[in-house]
Design a protein that fits this description.
This protein has two domains: about 350 residues, no CATH class; about 55 residues. Helices cover about 80% and strands about 0% of the residues. The chain has 15 helices and two strands. The chain is globular and about 85 Å long.
């Protein structure tokens, strides 16, 4: 067997290992909210992720990948010796996959793209020096650690706050849910259709007006279908005003009263301030007691009716997230594999390489296997450990994250799917109050984000020397 054949097999194995870890970490965090809220079982999540991730990569993901990920390193550094580039990219894939596996073991949701970038920085700086690194691009990636979670957190916070006011704290929440669902369906499919059509489906070019008309028509049809489905299922008389909902509304009103009393107290003096302090303490205690009662009743079967309706919406938003992730991350992760294979075949660096469909299929298969076998670790972190999720909360987080990912892609902003999902879950938790968040888990996640790039860089340098020592005598 020739050295080229051995290298090809090794590259494909490393590529599959990389895809496996993407499934275990990146895709797992994308599906974590659905599994955590019990809207989807792990088996169903694997099936949905497998189909939608591949579809997103195939229809919206770029089939042309720059060999130097997003211009991180000056390609001229490797022009004189393609083998150095081969060793470096192979080391980058291997180090990224290993870092993802370590992160998955601890349940840390980290960014695949950032890990690859860190690895490329490692071997690029080693070969060409630090001056060959595009530090402005690295800086923009670092900024996305704040930008991604902030944007998705704000959107998810707003969505869940609206759901709280319009549904969870309504006098008849089930009736309110039935009224609101068609509008949510319209919003989901409008955003989804605009994203797909404005990026352009293969071999079809549409002008902006046609894209808007088709998107509005699709969203309207889906909303009307949901309206008639809901209308055909009548709610039993007197059903909907359940204890948990009434108590939640009362708790919400008391919390607002606490804020008003605090403001009045700040502007008061003397005896008035003293009386307000007493009243404020009593109102706080009453609000706390009401929240406890609401939490107790929220586990009744009546309360589940609203969440059950939202579980269907969350399944739609889960598809949205999976498709968005495939469009943005899967092709980029498989791109380096195609670049290395081109060097093995042509003995030179191909600065723009076409990703073949069979390689995307290999990546898709590896992703599904990774999600099915090891994805539960990161799913547990996203779905359970940051904050407690229900279908209403999970829907808000998923739709907020997916909207951020796709809007940011249009604007060319450097955002991470992982960071968007974590930020969205954080935003939903904040809408429920600081006490709903697990700050220890959030600290660990933030630390894992910060060390992703340097960790990948160091591990890549080690593997670069090892791979070079093994193969340089034969090439």
């Amino acid at each position: 067997m020739s050295v080229e054949s051995v290298l090809t097999i090794i590259v494909l194995l490393v590529g599959f290992y990389m895809a496996w870890n993407i499934g275990a970490n990146d895709v797992a965090n994308a599906m974590g909210t659905s599994v955590g809220s019990k809207a989807l079982t792990l088996t169903k999540a694997v099936i949905i992720a497998g189909i939608l991730e591949f579809s997103g990569a195939f229809f919206l993901g770029s089939h042309v990948s720059e060999t130097m990920q997003k211009g991180i390193v000056d390609p001229q550094v490797f022009a004189g010796d393609p083998n150095i580039f081969l060793y470096g990219m192979l080391a980058a894939l291997l180090s990224t996959a290993i870092w993802l596996q370590i992160a998955s073991f601890f349940g840390w949701p980290v960014s695949t793209t950032h890990a690859i970038v860190g690895a490329i920085i490692g071997f690029g700086a080693l070969i060409g020096g630090f001056h060959t690194i595009n530090w402005a691009m690295v800086g923009s990636i670092a900024a996305s650690w704040v930008l991604s979670p902030a944007l998705s957190g704000i959107i998810s916070y707003i969505i869940f706050s609206i759901l709280q006011r319009k549904i969870l704290f309504a006098m008849n929440p089930i009736a309110a849910t039935r009224r609101l669902i068609p509008y949510l369906i319209f919003l989901i499919f409008l955003t989804f259709s605009l994203t797909i059509l404005s990026d352009g489906v293969k071999n079809i070019e549409l002008d902006n007006l046609t894209v808007i008309v088709i998107s509005l028509s699709t969203a309207l049809i889906c909303a009307l279908i949901s309206f008639f489905i809901i209308k055909s299922h009548k709610t039993p008389e007197g059903y909907g005003e359940v204890p948990s909902m009434r108590l939640s509304q009362q708790a919400y009103s008391l919390n607002k009263a606490v804020k008003h009393l605090q403001r009045v107290k700040l502007s008061s003096t003397g005896e008035t301030q003293s009386k307000l302090s007493t009243l404020l303490s009593e109102t706080r205690a009453l609000a706390k007691n009401m929240r406890k009662k609401a939490d107790f009743y929220s586990h009744t079967s009546d309360y589940t009716a609203v969440e059950k309706m939202f579980s269907y919406l969350q399944i739609i938003s889960a598809c949205f997230v999976a498709f968005a992730h495939g469009a943005n991350d899967v092709a980029n992760a498989i791109g380096p594999v195609a670049a290395v294979l081109d060097v093995v075949r042509f003995k030179q660096i191909v600065y723009e390489t076409t990703i073949p469909t069979w390689l995307l299929a290999l990546g898709g298969f590896g992703i599904v296997v990774g999600l099915a076998t090891w994805g539960w670790r990161v799913i547990e972190t996203i779905g359970k450990k940051i904050t407690e999720l229900t279908p209403t909360r999970g829907f808000s987080a998923e739709f907020g994250a997916a909207t951020t990912i796709l809007v940011a892609s249009k604007l060319g902003l450097p955002v991470s799917t992982t960071h968007c999902v974590v930020g969205a879950v954080l935003g939903v938790g904040l809408a429920r109050g600081l006490s709903a968040l697990n700050f220890k888990i959030l600290r660990d996640i933030a630390l894992s984000w910060v060390i992703t790039i340097p960790s990948s860089a160091l591990v890549c340098i080690l593997f670069f020397h090892l791979i070079k020592a093994i193969f340089s005598p034969f090439l």
